[in-house]
């Protein structure tokens, strides 16, 4: 039978038939998607597009973050229409009230379907991937493990990992002339953040810092995460961005199939990492189960989740085995490069502003003196959260100004009416106090743009100035946005980053310890550090774009009383 269905070229008729059917269905779907949606927003002003094929996606998703969108915001206001691929009308929003409305209604404004498929491939069916009741259940089970006191218990791990980085930098710097050397600080910060999440999330030793000089680590999962973000989601060719957008217009099963099977090296690497991550997670879940049975359970996040799962309660309030594995893998990925990239930008600002660096060092040294005077060797939570206000102001200002997460792509599941803080005027002169958005419209929530809103952060929001967080200029209790400094970088509403306290304490310990031990300067050969759009917003050296994520700094040892 099968030979009868064989065409001359050797390709089966069934394959041809299926391909034609897929093409027709996809064409129909595309047509309906482009022609049938976005009508209500066609009169919203926005920039002209030079390319029907790409629309504005290259300006938004590639190159330098904010290069175009900041100008558009000044020209068109908090809501503007931009073109997606193939002429589709889309919305870019920075209006604070609209951003909050959308962020607080995750069922009404869901993740872009293609991002959901990517997140299934990258994380598995865990917290980042889940929607609706599934998400609420997973979030409820996870939340206690991320409470303030739980996270404060990880401070010793953060100290340990910061010390590991400092030792490695010292060994380079101290053997160099003038105790000074140019070091790409991104590499060890990333490995230190990986070690920190391993210890805290599941009491696991990646030994990423220890093995940093080796070509390959003995730990397969650590190998998988070496340069993971850069090698997989780093700067991509235009056509790859186009394909991703195109997949977003096709039925979800097409993108699901693509990400599960595409023989593309980067995607294969993601699939392999997810597999190794899930295998390790499975082993660790078994270990935690045994620890629990023998009454030796620990305080890491996985132990708390396994403990919660074992408690006699409604089975609907538990995580399944696959969800637990995905949760662990999610924490490693979501909690490691994000925080490391934030720290990269903190280091960049400190290196660029010697006065700011000196002022911070003074605060940190005085606090360490107080810590030692009371007989301790490391900062407590209150040292970090309350007694180093300038450190906190620098962290907040960096998260605002150089937030690693700079946008979200959302899609309304129903026709919606979104309130606006500032009215907008349509191309035919109507003044809108609220915005009608049709189901299925692609929305780019511009986190970087929101973080520079003058109504929230002041008239000089385009300037890096940590003092705005010291003088009560930012209304941090307005409840308008994110959990930290009112910035949107940790998102807001029911899907706020669950690990924000973790990131803040880790960044505080790392930064304080780095400035206590070293002085940082921008090397003279570097003309500019670019804010490159990748999965996160990464530092890239102008003229060395092909090297990707890097931040070479002159690192000089400070003679201390340690
Ligand atoms: C600077 C560091 C970080 C930034 C900027 C950041 C940012 C974000 C953002 C914007 C979201 C919302 C994503 C969405 O709505 O799709 C998110 C969610 C999440 N983050 Fe973070 N994150 C950081 C650090 C961490 C850390 C350290 C952890 C874990 C220890 C973590 C775990 C998660 C998880 C599990 C979610 C999913 C939450 C949910 O959907 O309910 N993140 N993060």
TrEMBL record:
GO CC annotations, alphabetized: membrane
Superkingdom field: Eukaryota
Keyword line: Heme, Iron, Membrane, Metal-binding, Monooxygenase, Oxidoreductase, Transmembrane, Transmembrane helix
Residues bound to heme: 497
Cited InterPro entries: Cyt_P450, Cyt_P450_CS, Cyt_P450_E_grp-IV, Cyt_P450_sf, Cytochrome_P450_monoxygenase
Cell compartment(s), UniProt: Membrane
Cofactor: heme
Transmembrane segments: 12-31
One annotated GO molecular function: heme binding
Signal peptide: none
Pfam families: p450
Annotated pathway: Secondary metabolite biosynthesis; terpenoid biosynthesis
PANTHER family: CYTOCHROME P450, CYTOCHROME P450 12A4, MITOCHONDRIAL-RELATED
Family of this protein: Belongs to the cytochrome P450 family.
Protein name, entry field: Cytochrome P450
């Amino acid at each position: 039978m099968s030979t009868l269905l064989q065409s001359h070229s050797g390709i089966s008729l069934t394959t041809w038939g299926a391909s034609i059917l897929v093409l027709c269905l996809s064409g129909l779907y595309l047509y309906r998607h482009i022609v049938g949606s976005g009508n209500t927003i066609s009169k919203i002003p926005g920039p002209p597009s030079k390319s029907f094929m790409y629309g504005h996606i290259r300006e938004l998703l590639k190159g330098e973050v904010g290069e175009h969108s900041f100008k558009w915001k000044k020209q068109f206001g908090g809501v503007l229409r931009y073109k997606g691929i193939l002429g589709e009308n889309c919305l870019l929003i920075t209006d604070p009230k609209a951003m909050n409305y959308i962020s607080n209604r995750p069922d009404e404004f869901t993740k872009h379907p293609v991002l959901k498929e990517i997140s299934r491939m990258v994380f598995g069916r865990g917290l980042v991937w889940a929607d609706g009741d599934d998400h609420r259940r997973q979030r409820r089970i996870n939340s206690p493990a991320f409470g303030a006191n739980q996270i404060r218990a990880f401070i010793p791990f953060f100290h340990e990992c910061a010390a590991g980085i400092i030792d490695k930098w010292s060994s380079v710097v101290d053997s160099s002339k003038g105790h000074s050397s140019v070091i790409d600080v991104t590499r060890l910060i990333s490995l230190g953040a990986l070690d920190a999440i391993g210890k805290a999330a599941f009491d696991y030793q990646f030994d990423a810092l220890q093995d940093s000089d080796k070509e390959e680590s003995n730990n397969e999962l650590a190998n998988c995460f070496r340069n993971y973000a850069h090698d997989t989601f780093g700067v991509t060719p235009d056509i790859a961005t186009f394909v991703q957008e195109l997949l977003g217009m096709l039925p979800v099963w097409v993108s699901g199939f693509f990400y599960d099977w595409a023989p593309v090296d980067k995607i294969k690497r993601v699939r392999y990492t997810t597999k190794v991550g899930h295998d390790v997670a499975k082993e660790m879940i078994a270990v935690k189960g045994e620890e629990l049975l023998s009454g030796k359970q620990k305080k890491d996040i996985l132990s708390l989740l396994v403990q919660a799962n074992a408690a006699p309660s409604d089975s609907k309030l538990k995580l399944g085995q696959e969800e637990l594995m995905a949760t662990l893998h999610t924490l490693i990925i979501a909690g490691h490069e994000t925080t490391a990239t934030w720290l990269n930008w903190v280091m960049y600002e400190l290196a660029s502003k010697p006065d700011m660096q000196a002022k911070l060092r003074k605060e940190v040294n005085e606090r360490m003196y107080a810590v030692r005077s009371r007989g301790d060797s490391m900062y407590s939570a209150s040292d970090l959260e309350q007694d180093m206000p300038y450190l906190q102001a620098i962290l907040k200002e960096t998260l605002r100004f150089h937030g690693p997460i700079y946008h979200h792509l959302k899609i309304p599941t129903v026709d919606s009416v979104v309130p606006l803080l500032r009215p907008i005027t349509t191309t035919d002169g109507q003044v809108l106090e609220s915005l009608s958005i049709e189901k299925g419209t692609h929305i780019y929530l511009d986190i970087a743009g929101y973080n520079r809103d003058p109504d929230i952060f002041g008239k000089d929001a385009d300037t890096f100035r940590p003092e705005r967080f010291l003088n009560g200029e930012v209304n941090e209790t307005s409840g308008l946005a994110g959990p930290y400094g009112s910035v949107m970088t940790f998102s807001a509403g029911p899907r706020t980053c669950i690990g924000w306290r973790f990131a803040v304490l880790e960044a505080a310990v790392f930064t304080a310890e780095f400035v206590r031990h070293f002085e940082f300067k921008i090397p003279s050969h570097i003309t500019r550090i670019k804010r490159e759009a990748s999965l996160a917003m990464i530092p890239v050296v102008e003229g060395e774009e092909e090297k990707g994520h890097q931040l070479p700094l002159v690192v000089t040892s400070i003679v201390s009383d340690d």
